[in-house]
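Hi U.,

Before I forget, here's the chain from the pilot set. I'm dumping it here mostly so it's searchable later in email.
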Amino acid sequence: MNIVDNGRVYDSDWLFDVANNKLQEYDNALYRQLHRLCYLRYVNIRNILSNASCQQPCVNKVKELVKDENNIKRINKVFGYDKEEINIYVKYIDEFMVLIK
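Structure:
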């Protein structure tokens, strides 16, 4: 799956390979940029799904909420992320950003 950001295209498989330490040599600046992009997009998704702005749902709750087709449509309508892209962001945050849990 490709992640598109302002005309730039990134490979999500590469992102997960780097995060899993499967690649020994990689562009650290590019990885940090993608890491930040995934986090920011996850925050956008989480904010859309939260009922109260002062209490944000945890990653497990967000994973449950993105299974609902109505929530997918809401996110798509606001940000244009498709279902696969949403799942990539949530999965990445769940697996590799320990402090978010």
